[in-house]
């Protein structure tokens, strides 16, 4: 099994890139271009993931999903968040029916 700490290492690298010269960093270019650019990349990568899935090309699904996750990590950094924030939320939801969890958001419970 692959070590999931790669998410944390990538997040740390993205965070460190915030203070580097944008001419040498794709991450800095994304972050300095603003939220709309980051969101556009996420939408693009999500669409590519969907198409890879529709094509039933599992290797391509993995490749596109990696791009999607990477850009989601950039969005988290944009908001000052870390993978741990999402992991805590997933942990909170663990064992809760998806239907129940969604209903709790509507009722504010």
UniProtKB/TrEMBL annotation:
CDD domains found in the cross-reference section? NTP-PPase_HisIE_like
The record's annotation in InterPro entries points to: HisE, PRib-ATP_PPHydrolase-like
Gene Ontology MF terms in the entry? ATP binding; phosphoribosyl-ATP diphosphatase activity
- On the tree of life, the source organism's domain of life is Bacteria
Segments crossing the lipid bilayer: none
- Enzyme Commission number(s) from the entry: 3.6.1.31
Entry coiled-coil feature ranges: none
Q: Which reaction does it catalyse?
A: 1-(5-phospho-beta-D-ribosyl)-ATP + H2O = 1-(5-phospho-beta-D-ribosyl)-5'-AMP + diphosphate + H(+)
According to its UniProt record, in which pathway does this protein act?
Amino-acid biosynthesis; L-histidine biosynthesis; L-histidine from 5-phospho-alpha-D-ribose 1-diphosphate: step 2/9
Protein localization: Cytoplasm
Q: Which UniProt keywords apply?
A: Amino-acid biosynthesis, ATP-binding, Cytoplasm, Histidine biosynthesis, Hydrolase, Nucleotide-binding
Please give the NCBIfam families that the UniProt record associates with this protein: histidine_hisI, PRK00400.1-3
Family in the record? Belongs to the PRA-PH family.
Q: Which HAMAP family match?
A: HisE
**What is the recorded name of this protein?**
Phosphoribosyl-ATP pyrophosphatase
Task: Give the species.
Answer: Nitrosomonas communis
Its taxonomic path starts at: Bacteria, Pseudomonadati, Pseudomonadota, Betaproteobacteria, Nitrosomonadales
């Amino acid at each position: 099994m692959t070590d999931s700490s790669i998410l944390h290492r990538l997040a740390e690298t993205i965070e460190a890139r915030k203070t580097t010269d944008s001419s040498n960093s794709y991450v800095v270019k994304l972050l300095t271009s603003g939220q709309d650019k980051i969101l556009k990349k996420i939408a693009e990568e999500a669409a590519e993931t969907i198409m890879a899935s529709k094509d039933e090309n599992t290797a391509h699904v993995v490749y596109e999903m990696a791009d999607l996750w990477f850009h989601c990590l950039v969005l988290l950094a944009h908001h000052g968040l870390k993978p741990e924030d999402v992991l805590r939320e997933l942990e909170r939801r663990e064992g809760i029916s998806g239907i129940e969890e969604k209903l709790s958001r509507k009722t504010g419970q």
